[in-house]
Structures are given as structure tokens and as C-alpha cells.
């Protein structure tokens, strides 16, 4: 096929390329949604295999809800020190862990509560090197032994977190 020589040939070429370009655009959108689903499900503590057939709108709604729940990053006039930033990150991580533990129910409630309480105590005085202020040489305390795994519980039918038209 040669180069178009007339305006009519160029219009025909554009007309024939339009479906191909649209197909590529849709493929890019679908690939991005697939990646977004792979990123958001673990952050929400949901098992990917149970959510293999999510609609595109569901993926976007879950992502929007997750981003809305993230704590807004403050913009103070003075730049925070590295230890302030570390503590803020530690607290944000702890809050996310609390949500995930509650949603997944991987640990027994008593073990989960004990773990969160331990981490909250550490957060009140934690430093970036893992120690407590005024305690430069002590290693961080060991984590409690993991609880035996419990079988995953099926989600209740008609999960109120997602609206479906059926």
C-alpha cells in the first residue's frame, strides 16, 4: 500500500485505522484496570482469587474509597524532621494494619488486639533505628509468635460494601 496521494485516500486511511486505534486504547484501559485491581485488593486485605470477576466500575470505586480513607498528608510550614516523618509513617502503617486485621480476621481477636497494643506502645516512642528514645543500644523487641492460620471465612452474600444492580 502506497502513501495517500489525494485527500480522499487520507480520509479512507484514517477511517480504516480508527477501529485499530480504538482497540489499542481499550486494551490499554483494560491492562491499567487489571494492574489497579492487583494493587488495590491486597491493600484492602481482600483475596484476589475471590474477586476474579470484578467489574471495571467496582475496581474504580474500591480505589476511590481507599484513596479517600488515606490520611491527608499535612503540609506544615516547616519541613518535618526525619524522625517526625518516620513516626508519621509508622502511625499510618499501624492504622492500615488495624483495618486489614479487622477485615481479614487472620488472627484471633485477642492476638490481634495484643499485637496492635504492642505496636501502639512502640509507636509512642519509636525512632527510625528501631529503638526507643534514650535506649540507643537495645534491639527492637521480638514480634509475638504467629498464630495458627484459620481457614478463610466466605464473605456474606450481598456484601454491603459493593452495590450491584442485580
From TrEMBL:
GO molecular function terms attached to this record? DNA binding; protein dimerization activity
The segment(s) forming the BHLH domain are: 13-70
Gene Ontology CC: nucleus
Which Gene3D superfamilies does the UniProt record give? Helix-loop-helix DNA-binding domain
| Keywords annotated in UniProt | DNA-binding, Nucleus, Repressor, Transcription, Transcription regulation
List this protein's GO terms for biological process. Answer: regulation of DNA-templated transcription
Bias-annotated ranges (Pro residues): 136-157
Q: Where is this region: Disordered?
A: 123-166
- Per its UniProt entry, which superkingdom is the organism in? Eukaryota
In this chain the Orange domain maps to 86-119
Q: Which InterPro entries match?
A: bHLH_dom (IPR011598), HES_HEY (IPR050370), HLH_DNA-bd_sf (IPR036638), Orange_dom (IPR003650)
Compartments annotated for it: namely: Nucleus
Q: Name one Pfam family in it.
A: HLH
UniProt xrefs under PANTHER family? BASIC HELIX-LOOP-HELIX TRANSCRIPTION FACTOR, HES-RELATED (PTHR10985)
Q: What is this protein called?
A: Transcription factor HES-2
Q: What is the lineage of its organism?
A: Eukaryota, Metazoa, Chordata, Craniata, Vertebrata
Amino acid at each position: 500500500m502506497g502513501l495517500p496521494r489525494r485527500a480522499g485516500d487520507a480520509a479512507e486511511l484514517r477511517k480504516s485505522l480508527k477501529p485499530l486505534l480504538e482497540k489499542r486504547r481499550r486494551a490499554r484501559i483494560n491492562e491499567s484496570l487489571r494492574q489497579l485491581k492487583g494493587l488495590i485488593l491486597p491493600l484492602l486485605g481482600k483475596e484476589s482469587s475471590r474477586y476474579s470477576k470484578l467489574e471495571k466500575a467496582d475496581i474504580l470505586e474500591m480505589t476511590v474509597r481507599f484513596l479517600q480513607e488515606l490520611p491527608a498528608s499535612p503540609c506544615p510550614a516547616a519541613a518535618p524532621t526525619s524522625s517526625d516523618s518516620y513516626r508519621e509513617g509508622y502511625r499510618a502503617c499501624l492504622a492500615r494494619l488495624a483495618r486489614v486485621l479487622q477485615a481479614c480476621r487472620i488472627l484471633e481477636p485477642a492476638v490481634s488486639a495484643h499485637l496492635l497494643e504492642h505496636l501502639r506502645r512502640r509507636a509512642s516512642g519509636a525512632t527510625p533505628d528501631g529503638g526507643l528514645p534514650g535506649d540507643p543500644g537495645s534491639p527492637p523487641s521480638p514480634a509475638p509468635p504467629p498464630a495458627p492460620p484459620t481457614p478463610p471465612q466466605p464473605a456474606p452474600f450481598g456484601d454491603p460494601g459493593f452495590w450491584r444492580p442485580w
